[in-house]
Amino acid sequence: xxxxxxxxxxxxxxxxxxxxxxxxxSGRSEGAVTLIGVAKTVASALVAExxxxxxxxxxxxxxxxxxxxxxxxxRRAARWHMIGHLQRNKVKAVLPLASVxxxxxxxxxxxxIDAQAAKLGRKMPVLMQxxxxxxxxxxxxxxxxxxxxxxxxDSMPNLQLVGLxxxxxxxxxxxxxxxxxxxxxxxxxELKWHKIGGTALRHLSMGMSNDFExxxxxxxxLVRVGSLLFGGKIQDHEMMDDxx
Length: 244
What we know:
Number of helices: 9
Number of strands: 8
Low-confidence stretches: 234-244
Largest sheet: 8 strands, parallel
Strand order of the largest sheet: 7-6-5-4-3-2-1-8
CATH topology: TIM Barrel
Mean pLDDT: 91
Structural class: alpha/beta
Strand content: 15-25%
CATH architecture: Alpha-Beta Barrel
CATH superfamily: Alanine racemase
Order of helices and strands: HEHEHEHEHEHEHEHEH
Radius of gyration: 17 Å
Helix content: 25-40%
CATH class: Alpha Beta
């Protein structure tokens, strides 16, 4: 007799259904949008359960928690995304484990990742974080400086610029949320026009538990969902905190 799906597996299925519907409304296929389960503060056993239920991409926002979870669950169990603010002194630890880094927001950080990737003989896929909501408490490159930083990142031999990441203002009116997403998409299109990143530039990491459907409508290809998937009060919007 086949076991019934767990509550977490049901939530995963429901989220995927909502992603598929939102993608269809925006004229894209379900496969055009990848769900990243945000594992911040989540017990390793729950992360393992989600992976067993079919979650292929897991996002971590704190380096120490990421190291513990990956050690418990296994490096090859999923694609691991570093989605939180990354301090330069933590790059060496996270680089061998992460499949993608979403949060480049300065030239110095990009240079450190490039240098450490060179030591590993690796070309690291990265996204540049844009502070599209222009919120002083959040990390991310300013909108006006985004193209210039992208050019610098793209010139580094051991980095592969694959897209942009942003967070919309929390609990803001829908218009402001959409504006943050659309502004990021406009920067993405400008990078495309300038041929920055080449054919590898294809991702917009936008949208979390409370706004991922709006993000998909504005072109998101990666959505980062924590509390809606794992339950509880996971602050999947609070990815501006550093490792401390």
